[in-house]
Amino acid sequence: xxxxxxxxxxYEIRDKIPVNTRLQEDLRxxxxxxxxxxxxxxxxxxxxxxxxxxxxKHLPKVAAVLVLCLAVYMLAGITENRNDLxxxxxxxxxxxxxxxxxxxxxxxxxxxSISEYNGSLYIAxxxxxxxxxxxxxxxxxxxxxxxxxxxxxxxWVRVSPDGSRLVYLSTQGIGIYNIKTGESSLVLRHSDDxxxxxxxxxxxxxxxxxxxxxxxxxPGDEHGFDIIxxxxxxxxxxxxxxxxxxxxxxxxxxxxxxxxxxxxxxxIFFKILGDDNAAGKNDxxxxxxxxxxxxxHDRNSAFSKNEQxxxxxxxxxxxxxxxxxxxxxxxxxxxxxxxxxAIFDNxxxxxxxTAVGHNAVTKDDACNEDSPVNNTNIKANIxxxxxxxxxxxxxxxxxxxxxxxxxxxxxxxxxxxxxTDETGWLESLEPSGLKQVLLINSMYSYYxxxxxxxxxxxxxxxxxxxxxxxxxxxxxxxxxxxxxxKNLLSESTCRH
Length: 496
Hints:
Elements: H1 2-16, H2 21-36, H3 40-45, H4 59-80, H5 90-93, E1 99-102, E2 113-117, E3 120-125, E4 129-134, E5 137-140, E6 154-159, E7 165-170, E8 173-178, E9 184-189, E10 196-204, E11 209-219, E12 225-236, E13 242-247, E14 249-254, E15 259-264, E16 267-272, E17 307-312, E18 314-318, E19 324-336, H6 340-345, E20 354-360, H7 363-366, E21 376-380, E22 388-401, E23 404-410, H8 422-428, E24 436-441, E25 444-451, E26 457-464, E27 472-478
Helix pairs in contact: 1-4
């Protein structure tokens, strides 16, 4: 009886051990083919036939091997199923060609906002055009304009979690468009005096509600305008009741955590909301991410409690599954040339071609696809007493794990775009008591990344910053196969 139970247990363990079926089939075929050319009598001469029960005496050794295999299998499974971007294998990190371009003929227009649901891509373009792009082609949606705002122009669009409606931003305000019925209506209208604007609307999952940013502005002292208030609000579409959730902009709700992700002062924040954030309560819940005393902004503000800084960046977007946050991150590099005198003192006076600065990048390097950013030194004939800096600001799309903000990954590759030769610029400068700065942006700019409705892809708008070409293209980054249970994304580094 004990032998029977042991045998049964071994069979159960055997079924849990992963088997390479392809290799198994190849070996089986190879064995069969070889067997045909071997005399069966000679073959059986070398085979020892054991009695049916004699293998039982080898059970302890067999069991030990199987238990070891099972332990390795379970360990591999635990590692594979971790919701942690730091536990991705090196081979997976080198996956390439996961970025594709969606080229759509929009005439002279360029996309300003995109949103996806179940394979259909909704695109807002400058002017009054809203498009739907799917496998069946592209079509214009003209019915989004309410009757009383026929001259309004669309600027932004987001599709509802069930794919039935669009929330949009126009030059008149925020509106809702019913895809099935074609009905459209404004729910928030900008103030007539031009001091209050409602922007960046998105859906609040699970309720007939939206999240939006309210901005109150005033004219600047000399030119432009100053933002007096920028707050994220919740709007119940049934009752029209509105409540403030946080100070900031570009809010995105975190499914399953009753939390909000947003931006403020070029930083990405995570905030736990109350039991009923529509009621504006401050009874906050705890989260897996502990709050850092140094990361909490303005504890005197009722709307800044339980906030944690995720990273520096802009335009955060939470995946519909609630597991990941994608955002745009700016990485700044400052090269200072204020200590050039000390460098000249350490060289021969006749040596005018002096290397200055560090971690600099030449114009040729900036256009080299395989060249890392900042890998050469600038060589220039610079006048003594010069006080100058070159500021590089490189932007890329990043992703982080909601359960652990330390797990983050850069998804795109970008380079500084030198519209002028920095060596010539430095040599042309005259010594001055004022600091002279050359601002260098990246080759590409990324705007408002969004998730697909199944959380398996990321869409964004990428613009090229060259003087001759300012083309904008929609990019799509696909995740790895679902079987890997990770949304690791990577961009191919090709230029177009």
